[in-house]
Design goal:
By secondary structure, the protein is of the alpha/beta class. It has 15 helices and 15 strands. It is globular and about 90 Å long. 35% of the residues are buried. The chain binds one RNA strand of 74 nucleotides through helix 1, helix 7, strand 12, strand 13 and helix 10.
RNA sequence: GGUCCUGUGGCCGAGUGGCUAGGCAGAGCUCUGCAAAAGCUUCCACACCAGUUCGAAUCUGGUCGGGACCUCCA
């Protein structure tokens, strides 16, 4: 069964065939570290983490490149713009690298919370100024860019004319016709420097107050936003690579510009499979800074935001995202998050129960059930290979949960299904839940001490129950529940516990 | 205005023309000293109108609603 990926470029699901057998190259647009990441940012990084994990699971040696955009016109909120040109002491001034470092650290922290595997290479834009300048020089030399007033602009019209003949018109990724675009672009800074409104900056001349600046053949300035991805992707993945991912909002113009720049420089289309995740919405509207409706990740994890009824664990968010398809919008809501929180807990506990079932050697007494489970498990692969339909895989898992719990609680005879099926369940649940979906269930604190303390309380409660001292036994149970520890009386008299 | 996407039960969300997606919430039952957990059963749906078809949530057309991109944006 081949892996199928929806390719934004062709608008079709296509079988994934790597350029180099056994290897896969993937580039994902990373964060702009001028501010803190919000819930919306969580989606691409979790989505493509699953893609990365699955490619690895398939045995590919994957190089996963995700950039850090740390070049640009950055300002920290609250800090006055005149800082930049003032004569203040150096430590009082806004140092761009300080700001960039701060938000990079926060981003990395959030990625860890989500249990995202770190990319193979995480290049920074500021670390690749030379490569970007070199690339711009090549574009100018080929006649697809022009210099004006210390800035360099990409000549979109010329590109479109020449590359349309090669079947690669400008706009092919986002489905736009350049001619229809011309008069709809709005007013921007320095529009007059451009020959045409559709042209975009490769290099910008830096005004005196601009603090991030580098020397270039065209004077002091800073790179345009689009060129960094082209330069770094080419450097680390080659002139053509397998997968490029990012949010749908980057499809135009960012990825369109990437294609244009790279195609001119490298004489080949840069990317085989373009993947775009959809947006996370809030009240039906895209979460974004300009809409003033963002919930930062730190707020989400602490519950410190007017829209939040409670704190949400990073794994709840991860599970929430996995419950939908990455190309659909996903609407945020407390009710929805709380549903995910409970669902994930139930799934994880069933998974743990499954791992505890002793394997033996017996045949199934309920062959219909046994066959059904085997089918559902084989569909894990069918679904993930169908453009990463994580939601369907989870749905199948939940169909199996009652069987696991039923066996565990003796509501269902263990030999209803064969021992081989149980072994298969253990194997496949582990692969999908932990390896591919990257889910974990970490209880904070020193789990060993907690274990011992709880065991003590459980023993006391057992004794109280044996003496019909229900006041004591109920007090222990109810107070623990209040503290977030739930005791569960098992059928055989044992008591287990879980933390909410 | 242009291009495109979308409208599924109380909430979130899968849905490739015919077979109960799934989760959370609600109801009933089993188990339990009482609970919880777990299991079993169950209610609630396909925006609207017309068409194609033996059969449509799924295809076509229209109506109405929501959204994205065209500007930085995951």
């Amino acid at each position: 069964m081949p892996l199928k990926i929806y390719n934004s470029l062709t608008r079709k699901k296509e079988e994934f065939k790597p350029i180099t057998p056994g290897y896969a190259g993937m580039y994902v647009c990373g964060p702009t570290v001028s501010g803190e990441s919000h819930l919306g940012h969580a989606r691409p990084y979790i989505t493509f983490d699953v893609v990365y994990r699955y490619l690895q699971h398939l045995g590919y040696k994957v190089r996963y490149v995700r950039n850090i955009t740390d070049a640009g016109h950055f300002e920290e909120e609250g800090r006055a713009a005149e800082d930049k040109i003032s004569t203040k002491a150096i430590l009082e001034k806004l140092e761009p690298m300080e700001l960039v470092q701060k938000y990079t650290n926060m981003f990395h922290w959030a990625m860890q919370q989500f249990n995202n595997i770190e990319p193979s290479i995480e290049p920074t834009a500021t670390g690749h100024i030379v490569e970007q300048i070199t690339m711009i020089e090549k574009i100018i030399a080929d006649g697809y860019a022009y210099v004006n007033n210390g800035s360099v602009y990409f000549d979109v019209n010329k590109y479109n004319e020449d590359f349309s003949k090669k079947g690669m018109p400008y706009g092919m990724l986002s489905g736009r016709n350049l001619d229809e675009q011309l008069d709809t672009t709005r007013e921007l800074d320095n529009q007059d420097e451009k020959r045409n409104k559709a042209d975009f900056a490769l290099w910008k001349n830096a005004p005196p107050e601009h603090i991030m600046r580098w020397k270039s053949p065209w004077g002091e300035g800073f790179p345009g936003w689009h060129i960094e991805c082209s330069a770094m992707a080419t450097k680390y993945l080659g002139t053509q690579f397998d997968i490029h991912g990012g949010g749908m909002d980057l499809q135009f113009p960012h990825h369109e510009c990437e294609i244009a720049q790279s195609s001119v420089c490298n004489h080949t289309a840069p990317v085989r499979y373009w993947m775009h995740n959809n947006m996370i919405t809030i009240n039906g509207r895209k979460m974004g800074k300009s809409y003033n409706n963002v919930i930062k990740l730190s707020e989400l994890f602490t519950g410190n935001h007017p829209l939040l009824e409670q704190a949400y664990h990073p794994m709840t968010i991860r599970f929430f995202i996995l419950q939908s398809h990455y190309r659909s919008t996903l609407d945020f809501g407390n009710e929805a998050l709380q549903a995910s929180e409970k669902a994930f807990k139930r799934l994880w506990e069933a998974y743990e129960n499954l791992l505890k079932i002793e394997a033996g050697n017996w045949q199934a007494t309920d062959t219909a059930l046994d066959e059904k489970i085997n089918k559902q498990i084989s569909e894990f692969t069918t679904f993930i290979e169908d453009d990463f339909s994580t939601a369907k895989v989870l749905a199948n898992m939940f169909e199996i949960v009652p069987v696991i719990n039923g066996i565990k609680n003796k509501q269902l005879p263990i030999n209803s299904i064969s021992s081989a099926t149980i072994a298969l369940m253990k194997q496949q649940f582990k692969i999908f839940i932990e390896d591919i979906f990257g889910l974990t269930y970490n209880i904070t604190g020193d789990i060993n001490i907690l274990n011992d303390v709880l065991q003590l309380l459980i023993d006391i409660r057992k004794e109280a129950k044996a003496n019909k001292n229900f006041v004591t036994s109920d007090t222990i149970r109810n107070e623990l529940l209040r503290l977030g520890v739930q005791l569960k009386d098992e059928k055989d008299g044992n008591i287990s516990w879980s933390i909410d």
